[in-house]
Design brief:
Layout (H helix, E strand, L loop, with lengths): L11 H13 L7 E13 L2 E7 L6 E7 H4 L11 E11 L4 E11 H19 L17 E5 L5 H13 L4 E4 L9 H15 L4 E5 L14 H8 L5 E4 L8 H5 L2 E3 L2 H8 L3 H40 L2 H42 L2 H6 L4 E4 L16 E5 L4 E5 L7
Parallel strand pairs: 3-5, 6-7, 6-8, 8-9, 9-10
Antiparallel strand pairs: 1-2, 1-4, 2-3, 4-5, 11-12, 12-13
Helix pairs in contact: 4-8, 5-6, 9-10
């Protein structure tokens, strides 16, 4: 019996083409990261050729970085060095070999961290978490603002000072968190949950006063990124780094470089608002005066024409008509100016009513704990705790000797 494989056997070209299609179209192999040790490296006019192997030498792969790409490599491959390579698999049918075309080479230490960052960034971007369309609207005049940062950080003081200066009378909810180290991601997530559970904040500032790259690692942690992404409250980040954005920045609804800038972004300046109002009043007066000047010019022109025509009766009628229109315009103008002045006075009274110092002058006092927190209920106080009583003139330190629930 004779077996005939002529209709089923593949040619060498057919098999190679099949492998080429199989490998080069694979989603993983089209952009794959590979780590290993460089065993040899040869420069050629067309590019850099080298071999990447496992440290135990059980496997190796040939690599090439073409001339146009070599200058873009973060780390030049040198024999004996550990690298992380980004590239794609290519099949060469004439030699029956496969090879890794290299786009980027990173040192294995720092590169591994960068690789993990990039992989997470790519995944989050693919999920649409950085899309502009999902950014929440930042309210222009929020009255209750939540702040998450370290209670001992300068960022907390900068934010308080800026908010008080720009918009006195704001209600600030402070949710303290650790913003550095291994415990930071879980601490930040808990702080966000506290703000969400409270439910009063109209906008949330997540901040830190800068630091080295490793100190800011918590803001690239997926737990923190997802907590910010899923927060129903608009989030503004001011992490204090100038060079690179963190993943938390990218997913936030708005981000700036410093805590102070975050506070400036979240609320307008009352003094600026008052200046803008004054400018509107000036603009209104200018427009009215300009309109009056135009009408006066038209009136003078009509008088001149009437004098030439000597139509005394028509002149008198037109004069009366224009006089009536002038009185009407003055009445409308006067009314609008009165409304503008009343609005300005209302704003002044409102500004005076929310001035904390004015409230204290009326005999009220502010109770502050040793941690700088203003308690809202006796349940937040403990017997023996020292309190500071802020009066209109000076402060008094007292100790809690009894707590009575209302």
């Amino acid at each position: 019996m004779t077996l005939d494989f002529s209709n089923t056997a593949l040619s060498v070209t057919g098999l190679t083409d099949y492998l080429k299609l199989l490998l080069e179209q694979d989603e993983i192999l089209r952009q794959v990261w590979v780590t290993g040790e460089v065993s040899s490296a040869n420069h050629h006019q067309s590019g850099l050729f080298f071999t990447l192997k496992d440290t135990d030498s059980t496997a190796s792969i040939k690599c090439v970085s073409w001339k146009s790409q070599v200058a873009k490599l973060a780390q030049m491959p040198v024999a004996g060095e550990q690298l992380i390579i980004l590239g794609s698999i290519r099949i060469y049918p004439q030699r029956g070999e496969y090879q890794l075309t290299v786009w980027q080479a990173l040192p294995a230490g720092v590169g591994l961290q960068a690789l993990r960052y990039q992989q997470l960034k790519n995944r989050l971007q693919a999920e649409g978490l950085f899309d502009t369309e999902r950014k929440k609207y930042i309210p222009p005049h929020p009255q209750i603002i939540a702040v998450i940062t370290s209670p001992t950080a300068a960022a907390w003081g900068d934010i308080q000072k800026t908010l008080k200066h720009r918009y006195p009378g704001l209600h600030i909810l402070f949710s303290p968190a650790t913003v550095q180290g291994e415990q930071a991601p879980a601490s930040i997530v808990k702080a966000i949950e506290r703000v969400k559970k409270d439910g009063r904040a109209e906008v949330l500032i997540l901040s830190r006063g800068g630091g080295a790259v490793e100190e800011l690692a918590c803001f690239n942690d997926e737990r923190v990124v997802m907590a910010v992404a899923n927060c129903p409250i608009p989030v503004i980040t001011g992490i204090g780094h100038q060079r690179d954005e963190s993943l938390t920045d990218l997913v936030a609804d708005s981000w700036v470089h410093t805590p102070t800038a975050a506070a400036e972004t979240v609320v307008p300046s009352l003094s600026d608002l008052q200046i803008q109002h004054q400018q509107r009043i000036i603009g209104l007066c200018t427009a009215v005066n300009s309109s009056l000047a135009v009408r006066e010019k038209q009136l003078q022109g009509l008088k001149h024409r009437l004098r030439q025509l000597r139509l005394d009766r028509q002149v008198e009628q037109e004069r009366d008509k224009l006089s009536w229109k002038q009185r009407q315009l003055l009445q409308v103008t006067t009314g609008k100016l009165q409304q503008a002045n009343q609005h300005l006075e209302m704003l002044r009274q409102k500004l005076a009513s929310i001035d904390p110092q004015s409230v204290l002058q009326r005999g009220y006092a502010v109770v502050i704990t040793e941690n700088g927190v203003i308690p809202h209920s006796v349940s937040e106080l403990t017997i023996g705790e020292n309190l500071v009583i802020q009066l209109a003139q000076g402060k008094v330190t007292v100790k809690v000797i009894e707590v009575t629930e209302s």
